């Protein structure tokens, strides 16, 4: 590839106009003939035995077509360690446990029917903190494990551990040490579009499900397993993804409501739609997990880090989602952000009777960055070294292999640090006083896929038609992040056609090739790499056919030109001979010979050539397929070792704040976000991704928290769950994209979906410390916490 | 279930007549408080009587006393030149109420009848000595706003009465005014709010009117703190003393939005800062 024509150019996203005009079809907009509305009855206790469920009144309500419970449906197990059930039997373990469900002819009747279901409980004592859950006489959340063996404590059977170097030697070598306990709260993904699905069986018992998911193919696998549990082994679930109003990790698991709509659709023989309203989304969908991190780091007199010790405790809630594996991502910065020779990392997860949690953007990384980067400033102070300087001295380098075995290809961390320092006016602003201060924090994340599953691959099909259109079929998901924009530019660039000729088809397991899921910031990296591979095949086939067909098409062009202009003089050129060489180029939708790139009759429109390939004896259509599986490894999580990603991203954010020491309010004056993105694919969508991530990072830092008491969520609405609005984002933001042109990246790009929110909170906390000398350990940094910390200073 | 009849009378007389035959019906103005409660199934009225087509309940009338129709939207308060000129505190508070979409439909009458201690228009109206006119089957009566607010969600009007007008006496001449509101984010229900009106004569505070929201069962005036300020020479020490006294006149609660201590702290800081700022005292 020589000069890039489309990649890197500010381009409006193809899905933008319809979404802005409210014309995109979200799950909420979809309807099927004869469709019923499903609704779920949830538990009213955090932990209780179910003594009796009486559904008779609901069944008699006119318009109700089915009422299901665990008693009258096959057992459908869910969750990646299969400790959860679509409908709960015997006992409930959290407030949101699904006990029963109805399908009715409209949503109002379904809601009324739910109210008519009577449940009698015997309340049980619950456990609501990791400490309570680990107490010797703690009530058990699960009495038996998924294989039916008795359990005797509340620990999860998942272990994430890493040790490298010699921790004691590292401790002995340290001249300065800082320790701290840090925590982060449960927060909501706060998607604009709430969760929902429609399940429909045909008369062959084949299932189609329109789902709000980020993992259509893993969902297909889960749903097929459910079909088998329902006695329909061998039947298939076709998963279709409609437009998604944001997912942020909430679509990385299959959810009880999806299995319930499958059960209801099967029971009634009609399509069944379940869509959560905002209250349900808040109360009954899994939010981001909280975390407790104890960290100690040490350095020598020069500021070289000598050791890092991290213990994570995790309240998993009552069941296990993929989100429970978030320590896998914590391990990345824990072992590999800055150079540390001696490391201990361990994470322990426990069941509680709190709402069970799931993935969210950053997947453990913001939680760990909060502890690591806050603590690093404490260490800098203990060592008497400027925090920027300390970070520089321990900065990662291109080409290194980290203690976790992560192979660093390109690394722009140093540039990120320097850029932030320059833009935020470090060190002048460090000593400005007046309750103002600056702080910085960095991040390290996967940027070339993330192998947490047996395959980290993505498939791509490019199907060209007689009009020169390129229909793209791929298994990843556009959920608002700008995937279609990156992918259409990548196909246009790699193939040599205009972006407006690229049509990306809705994700559908029936038509699209496999993809593991749109997570781990892998969407654009993977899809664009697959697109490049598929485009190469398309070009090769077209050029191969052009050897025999090109000359004739060029001559047709010449004839047309002569007709228009009898005086037209064509250059003397042996097109047959040149074409037989098979050397072609395809750019902007024209096939031409590199030997005569500008001769107009020798520029054959791609659609014309495609028709020539198609409409002849033994004609052909051009379709190509590629499957890109990146060069990375599935780590061993008990050892904490393995090159999980094909490349890694880096970034640093710097913040200037002013703190009102009487009201505790933190005002952000300026924010600089410098990210190593490999290569900018589309500046517009990249900026969109990063601004959005920063807003989420600021929400995490200052406002957001799902409050609960004895397992009951106290603020299940936007009235009392606060996210930043444009009024909170009212300060200058400098986005600085560092291009390191990664060799494995498509056009050099790395994944950048998650990183923007990772270091924001610790950067703000470090700035607050600089401004007023108090260290906040627990997110969010509320005014009341600031005032309390000032009081205790 | 959220099924109800909807009536749209056009005169106050029709409104009162409907209410007589449908005693369980609820009045609805902008609906921004009411519909939330219906959707959350806190309320389940069989019928709604909309006040929105009753033109005599709208409009802002000039005169010795200014009369604001109960159906005046919050957005109108933000923009009306008369309000901006004579009762700027009310415009300041209105601009901080909810979002643009909410302000477009929410009404002043609804904000007062809902009788939340955090209603943003309550503290400005209290310092302007507003009266409200209630109209019922037995005619109309006028009560002070302080009498009107009885407790959270509770006013002195009877279920058959509607609030028709808010009546504002002329504001004190040359008053300086400041509204302050603390939310968790900018667009939020107040966890504490203050309205301050000062009339100054050189360094002397001739008159002081202070009101606070979200820190007692109803929004209220602070007579004690006002008396400490009135007639005194302004100073930063005095502002601090007034603010301290103010905290003895309130009874905040702690809830998920803020602790009682924090609410008290904000009232103290905001009152002190308001007085300092209006008096031109530089800290
Ligand atoms: C998203 C959102 C944000 C909000 N933010 C704020 C905020 O920042 N500050 C704030 O103060 N409030 C806020 N509110 C609350 C609400 O918008 C205001 O209280 C508003 O002024 C209510 O007016 P309304 O016309 O919508 O009242 P409605 O909902 O129509 O009525 C409220 C109550 O008053 C009764 N009522 C209304 N008018 C009359 C009348 N003329 N006579 C007798 N009874 C009557 C109704 O029966 C009902 O009980 C917010 C609400 C929402 C939904």
Describe the structure.
The complex is a heterodimer of chains A (793) and B (283). Chain A has 793 residues and is an alpha+beta fold. Chain A has a domain at 453-501 and 513-628: Aldehyde Oxidoreductase, domain 4, CATH 3.30.365. In chain A, the strands form eight sheets. A seven-stranded mixed sheet of chain A has the order 3-7-1-14-11-12-13, sandwiched between helices. Chain A has a five-stranded mixed sheet with strand order 9-17-16-15-10. In chain A, a hairpin with a 5-residue loop joins strand 11 and strand 12 (207-211). In chain A, helix 10 (365-383) packs parallel to helix 18, helix 14 (523-564) packs across helix 16 (606-614) and helix 17 (683-703) packs across helix 18 (760-772). The radius of gyration of chain A is 29 Å and the shape is globular. The N and C termini of chain A lie far apart (60 Å). The mean pLDDT of chain A is 97. Chain B has 283 residues and is of the alpha+beta class. In chain B, 35% of the residues lie in helices and 25% in strands. Chain B is built from twelve helices and 14 strands. In chain B, the strands form four sheets. Chain B has a five-stranded antiparallel sheet. In chain B, strands 11-12-13-14 form a four-stranded antiparallel sheet. Chain B has a three-stranded parallel sheet with strand order 1-3-2, covered by helices on one side. In chain B, strand 4 (60-61) and strand 5 form a beta hairpin. In chain B, helix 10 packs antiparallel against helix 11 (236-248). The longest helix of chain B has 20 residues, at 260-279. Chain B is globular. The N and C termini of chain B lie far apart (57 Å). The mean pLDDT of chain B is 96. The A-B interface holds A 108, 111-112, 279, 662-664, 703, 707, 714-715, 719-720, 722-725, 727-728, 782-784, 787 and B 1-3, 40, 182, 184-189, 256-259, 262, 265-266, 269. The structure holds flavin-adenine dinucleotide.
């Amino acid at each position: 590839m020589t000069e890039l024509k489309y990649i890197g150019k500010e381009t409006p996203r193809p899905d933008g106009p319809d979404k802005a005009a409210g014309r995109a079809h979200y799950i909420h907009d979809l309807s099927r003939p004869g469709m019923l509305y499903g609704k779920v009855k949830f538990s009213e206790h955090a932990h209780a035995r179910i003594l009796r469920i009486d559904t008779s009144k609901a069944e008699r309500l006119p318009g109700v077509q089915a009422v299901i419970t665990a008693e009258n449906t096959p057992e459908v197990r869910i969750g990646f360690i299969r400790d959860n059930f679509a409908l709960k039997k015997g006992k409930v373990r959290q407030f949101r446990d699904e006990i029963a469900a109805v399908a009715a002819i409209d949503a109002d009747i379904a809601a009324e029917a739910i109210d008519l279901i009577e449940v009698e409980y015997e309340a049980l004592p619950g456990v609501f903190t990791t400490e309570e859950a680990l107490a010797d006489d703690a009530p058990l959340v699960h009495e038996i494990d998924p294989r039916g063996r008795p359990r005797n404590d509340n620990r999860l059977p998942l272990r994430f551990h890493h040790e490298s170097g010699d921790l004691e030697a590292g401790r002995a070598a340290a001249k300065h040490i800082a320790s701290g306990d840090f925590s982060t709260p449960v927060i909501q993904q706060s998607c604009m579009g709430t969760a929902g699905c429609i399940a429909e069986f045909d008369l062959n018992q084949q299932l189609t499900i329109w789902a709000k998911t980020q993992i259509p193919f893993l969902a297909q696998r889960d749903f097929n397993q459910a079909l088998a549990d329902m006695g329909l082994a061998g039947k298939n679930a076709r998963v279709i993804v409609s437009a998604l109003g944001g997912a942020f990790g909430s679509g990385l698991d299959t959810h009880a409501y999806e299995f319930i709509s499958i059960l209801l659709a099967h029971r009634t023989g009609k399509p069944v739609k379940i869509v959560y309203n905002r209250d349900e989304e808040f109360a009954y969908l899994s939010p981001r997990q909280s975390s407790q991190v104890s960290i100690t780091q040490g350095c020598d007199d020069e500021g070289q880090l000598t050791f890092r010790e991290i213990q994570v405790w995790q309240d998993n809630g009552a069941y296990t989602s993929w989100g429970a594996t978030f320590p896998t991502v914590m391990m990345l910065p824990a072992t590999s952000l800055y150079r540390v020779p001696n490391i201990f990392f361990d994470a322990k997860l426990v069941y509680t009777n709190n709402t069970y949690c799931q993935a969210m953007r950053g997947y453990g990384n913001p939680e760990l960055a909060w502890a690591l980067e806050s603590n690093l400033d404490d260490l800098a102070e203990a060592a008497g070294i400027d925090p920027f300087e300390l970070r520089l001295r321990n900065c990662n380098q291109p080409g290194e292999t980290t203690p976790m075995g992560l192979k660093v290809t390109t690394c722009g961390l140093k540039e990120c640090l320097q850029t932030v320092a320059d833009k935020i006016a470090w060190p002048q602003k460090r000593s400005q006083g007046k309750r103002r201060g600056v702080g910085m924090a960095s991040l390290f994340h996967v940027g070339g896929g993330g192998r947490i599953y047996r395959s980290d691959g993505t498939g791509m099909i490019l199907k060209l038609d007689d009009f020169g259109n390129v229909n793209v079929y791929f298994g990843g998901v556009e959920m608002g992040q700008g995937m279609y924009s990156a992918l259409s530019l990548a196909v246009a660039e790699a193939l040599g056609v205009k972006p407006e000729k690229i049509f990306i088809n809705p994700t559908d397991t029936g038509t699209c090739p496999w993809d593991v899921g749109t997570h781990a910031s892998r969407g654009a990296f993977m899809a664009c790499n697959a697109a490049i591979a598929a485009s190469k095949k398309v070009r090769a086939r077209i050029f191969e056919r052009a050897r025999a067909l090109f000359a004739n098409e060029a001559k047709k062009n010449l004839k047309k030109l002569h007709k228009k202009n009898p005086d037209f003089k064509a250059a003397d050129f042996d097109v047959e001979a040149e074409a037989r060489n098979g050397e072609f180029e395809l750019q902007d939708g024209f096939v031409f010979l590199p030997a005569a790139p500008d001769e107009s009759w020798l520029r054959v429109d791609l659609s014309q050539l495609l028709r020539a390939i198609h409409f002849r004896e033994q004609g052909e259509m051009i379709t190509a397929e590629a499957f890109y599986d990146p060069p990375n490894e599935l780590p061993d999580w008990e050892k904490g070792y393995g090159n999980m990603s094909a490349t890694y991203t880096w970034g640093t954010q710097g913040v200037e704040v002013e703190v009102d020491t009487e009201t505790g309010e933190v005002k952000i004056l300026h924010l600089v976000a410098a990210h190593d993105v490999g290569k900018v694919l589309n500046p517009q969508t990249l900026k969109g991704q990063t601004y959005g991530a920063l807003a989420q990072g600021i929400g995490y830092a200052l406002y957001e928290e799902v409050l609960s008491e004895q397992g009951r969520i106290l603020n299940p609405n936007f009235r009392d769950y606060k996210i930043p609005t444009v009024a909170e984002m009212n300060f200058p933001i400098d986005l600085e994209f560092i291009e390191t042109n990664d060799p494995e990246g498509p056009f050099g790009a790395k994944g950048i979906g998650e990183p923007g929110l990772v270091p924001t909170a610790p950067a703000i906390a470090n700035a607050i410390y600089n401004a007023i000398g108090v260290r906040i350990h627990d997110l969010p940094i509320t005014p009341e916490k600031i005032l309390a910390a000032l009081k205790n200073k | 279930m959220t099924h109800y009849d909807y009536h749209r009378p056009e005169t106050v007389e029709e409104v009162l007549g409907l209410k007589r035959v449908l005693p369980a019906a609820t009045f609805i103005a902008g609906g921004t408080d009411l519909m939330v409660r219906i959707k959350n199934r806190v309320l389940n009225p069989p019928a709604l009587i909309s006040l929105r087509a009753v033109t005599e309940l709208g409009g802002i009338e000039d005169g010795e006393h200014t009369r604001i129709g109960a159906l005046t939207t919050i957005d109108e308060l933000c923009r009306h030149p008369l309000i901006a000129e004579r009762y700027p505190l009310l415009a300041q508070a209105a601009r901080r109420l909810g979002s643009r979409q909410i302000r477009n439909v929410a009404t002043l009458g609804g904000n007062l009848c809902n009788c939340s201690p955090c209603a943003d228009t309550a503290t400005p109206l209290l310092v302007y000595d507003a009266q409200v006119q209630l109209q019922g089957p037995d005619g109309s009566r006028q009560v002070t706003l302080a009498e009107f607010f009885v407790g959270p969600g509770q006013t002195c009007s009877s279920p058959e009465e509607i609030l028709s007008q808010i009546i504002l006496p002329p504001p004190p001449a040359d008053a300086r005014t400041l509204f302050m509101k603390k939310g968790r984010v900018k667009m939020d229900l107040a966890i504490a709010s203050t309205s301050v009106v000062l009339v100054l004569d050189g360094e002397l505070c001739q008159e002081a009117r202070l009101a606070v929201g979200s820190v007692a069962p109803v929004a209220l005036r602070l007579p004690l703190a006002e008396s400490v300020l009135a007639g005194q020479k302004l100073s930063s020490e005095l502002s601090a003393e007034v603010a301290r006294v103010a905290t003895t006149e309130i009874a905040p609660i702690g809830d998920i939005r803020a602790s009682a201590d924090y609410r008290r702290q904000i009232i103290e800081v905001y009152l002190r800062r308001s007085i300092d700022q209006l008096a031109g005292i530089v800290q």
